[in-house]
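Limitations
The structure tokens in this dataset are predictions for the assembled complex, not deposited experimental models. Users should treat interface geometry with appropriate caution, especially where small molecules or nucleic acid strands are included. An illustrative entry is reproduced here so readers can see what is and is not provided.
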Amino acid sequence: MARSLPLEALLHIFSFLTDDIVSCAGVCREWQVAAERTTFSTLLANSSNLEDLRRIVGRTSTPWRPSFVRKLDFKCILPAYGVHARSRFEDENDRSSNDKAFTQSVTSLFKVLSSWSDDDRCKLELVIYARSPGDVESEPDWAKRKIRMQKHQAFPDEDLLWARYGSSYLHLTEEAHLSTAKCVVELQVHGSFPYRELSPRSVSEILEIVDLTPIMIGPELFWPASASKNIPYWPNLTKINVRYASATPSGTWLFERDPRWRDVSPGRYHTPTWNEGDPPGEKNINQFRTMPNRELNELYLAAGRAAQQMPRLRTMILWADIRCSGDGLEEVINAISDHWFQYTSSSARATWVCTSEFHVAPEVREVWDAVAKSHGQSHITIENLGFHVGPYESASPTEYYDDEHGFDEDFKKEYGCFSWDS
Ligand SMILES: *[C@@H]1O[C@H](CO)[C@@H](O)[C@H](O)[C@H]1NC(C)=O
Ligand SMILES: *[C@@H]1O[C@H](CO)[C@@H](O)[C@H](O)[C@H]1NC(C)=O
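Predicted assembly:
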């Protein structure tokens, strides 16, 4: 009886089951395989149970399983710290042991994943984030978590909570040897609050889609500082979407205060505050930093060089995590509060949308023209747009942007679109 049901029918039936599916898997081999297509589609793993992952989803022991995994959520467990350590900021020693643990577990993870990769059907989305058992979010009991937060409010110096590691950025160390895991076609890195900040070296060659949001980046995400060797190549990348903080990991600001702010009477707006231990990309201070500085053209230059090494690239979106907040701000900015860039290869268009004055440097134009040519187009169309009026009901102008045609003409007219370059 069980055998006579076609696989499609079984899959359909199993898709309605939740807990019972485990007992179905015990009926016979066909049912097991069909049930596992559901039960193994999303897996959670962490650095302490990688060995189980390797055993349970082994390509030799269970050759059918790797291709069932669609999504793997991986938590990298950083070294624990005790109650006393909650009162002090992470120092170089902490950072170095965190980097070591991070590198070790990501390396081990990729080793497991590379063993799945011989199966061409195996294509998965990998989500990576990092936490220490000492971090307040690691406390599973909400009541206990609340007590810790209340304690922090009463005695902030005794438990710094996030501020303890807010200025630390995890790196893969030199010892990182990431095996090629061809099965990872989409990587999501939760590299920011409420997770640990991550500064991942690219796993460029394997990826089809890169979605890094939000993350701290510098030009070296795309292009090494000494470009003579290790030129990155991204043969399979079709889509890259990066939402980045307003400072680089090396501490350089990408955005300055817009001089138009000087005209604003003080006191009417929130004063930016800066506390010891706040990460460099801390939001409060960002609200005035909307104007790109020179460094940003460096970022676009590096991104354009990298894009020429992405033969299959369809879209690249780089979106700065800047916030203009404060009452009455619209009198000053009077526009979309964003700094956003999109390149689309099929329409050979590079669009910038900028709240504050920005000029696309000539070498950036050249590089992106070369990108369009590398994608078989005759030349690039560059738009560098500002808006006199923002569509305040919407979070971002991207909703009005069409990959093929750019912004709708009516939309541009309605919101007072102009070019920063004219
Ligand atoms: C790691 O995963 C195992 C098995 O799911 C779980 O028991 C353990 O609590 C996890 N460890 C952490 C720190 O999340
Ligand atoms: C990525 O590109 C390389 C070289 O072009 C190719 O051999 C490989 O099969 C691709 N991997 C995936 C997952 O598409």
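Some entries come with short summary sentences. For this one: The longest strand covers residues 124-131.
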